[in-house]
Specification:
- By secondary structure, the protein is mainly β.
- The chain has a single domain, classed as Rieske [2Fe-2S] iron-sulphur domain (Rieske Iron-sulfur Protein, 3-layer Sandwich), CATH 2.102.10.
- Helices cover 0% and strands 39% of the residues.
- It has strands at residues 17-25, 33-39, 42-48, 54-58, 72-73, 77-79, 86-88, 103-108, 113-120.
- The strands form two sheets. The chain has a six-stranded antiparallel sheet, with no helix packed on it. Strands 5-6-7 form a three-stranded antiparallel sheet, with no helix packed on it.
- A hairpin with a 3-residue loop joins strand 5 and strand 6 (77-79).
- The model is unreliable at 1-6 and 123-127 (pLDDT under 50).
- The structure holds FE2/S2 (inorganic) cluster.
- FE2/S2 (inorganic) cluster (FES) is lined by residues 61, 63-66, 80, 82-83, 85.
- FE2/S2 (inorganic) cluster is lined by residues 61, 63-66, 80, 82-83, 85.
Length: 127
């Protein structure tokens, strides 16, 4: 029962949708630090850089499950506190050979709240 390829009326052009989650005031995260939030059963680490911008990555280190939100950051990387693997805050890629961290889109809204865009994939595990 395949669809007629010339009939695009029922074909979704959006394979992955996102849901916005408001995680509360940005002031709960001091400059230069991170905090972990539970979002749809996942742990997400949100970092507030010293320039005020936000970054969001998976909060669980792929090496041995270390708490990424407790890691130290500079402008470009976060270092896991357990064994010092380093991950890009932009891409989640590790410069020290670990598996990458998932990254998320995050921003501050007009009321100074943290707004996370969380991927919502039907029928597909995010794990
Ligand atoms: S658990 Fe993160 S570097 Fe080992």
């Amino acid at each position: 029962m395949s669809a007629d390829p010339t009939d695009a009326s029922e074909v979704s052009t959006e394979p992955v949708s996102t849901k916005s989650h408001t995680l509360g005031p940005v002031d709960q995260i001091p400059f230069g630090e991170g905090r972990a939030f539970g979002v749809d059963g996942e742990q997400v680490a949100v970092f507030r850089l010293r320039d005020g911008t936000l970054r969001a990555l998976s909060a669980v280190c792929p090496h041995r499950g270390g708490p990424i939100a407790d890691g130290t950051i500079d402008r470009q990387v976060v270092m896991c506190p357990l064994h010092q693997h380093a991950f890009s805050l932009e891409t989640g890629c590790s410069s020290t050979g670990a598996e990458p961290l998932r990254t998320y889109s995050v921003q501050e809204d007009a009321e100074q709240n943290i707004v996370l865009e969380y991927p919502h994939i039907r029928g597909n595990s995010l794990a």
